[in-house]
Amino acid sequence: MTDSPSTPQDHPSETGSGTLALVTQAARRGAADASAAASRTWEAAGRFANRCLYTTCYTVAYGVVFPSVLLARAVPKNNPLVRGLIDGAQAAIRKTDELYRPAIKKSPAGSPAAALPAT
After folding, report:
1. Cys-Cys link to 14, which of 18, 35, 101, 109 (CB 3.0-4.6 A)?
2. What distance in Å separates the CA atoms of residue 95 and residue 19, rounded to the nearest whole number?
3. Residues 75 and 81 sit within 8 Å (Cβ to Cβ)
């Protein structure tokens, strides 16, 4: 009796179906790995977009607010320019109240808008 190594012809079940099972298993693992990689990429892209948006808004807000406040503090308090700005702002508030007061009166009685005082 000779012990010869087994050849693929000796075990037909391991040649065709075994290879197919191995390929199927590898494809499933590859799909799972691809899905996980896509998920990580999507999360990283989301974090990048959020950080970019935050930085842009911060820069614009700082770039607008800081010079405005600096300019406002440079203007003397008691002069026609400041009084005109204050009077104009109060007139705009009154006009807005006139325009939106009918909408507030029509709102249901339980709403927070109904609790606003009438002027």
Report:
1. 18
2. 80
3. yes
For residue 61 the two structure tokens come to: 């807000």
Total domains in the chain come to 2
pTM score of the predicted model: 0.38
Please give the residue range of the domain that contains residue 60. Answer: 17-74
For 100-109, the pLDDT digits (tens) are 887 666 665 5
Helix (H, G, I), strand (E, B) or coil at 88: helix
Same domain, 60 and 26: yes
The Cα–Cα gap between 79 and 88 comes to: 14
- Cα 93 from Cα 100, distance rounded (Å): 11
DSSP string, 19-80: HHHHHHHHHHHHHHHHHHHHHHHHHHHHHHHHHHHHHHHHHHHHHHHHHHHHHHHHS-SSSH
101: tokens are 């007061």
Q: Map tokens 């339980």 to a residue.
A: 110
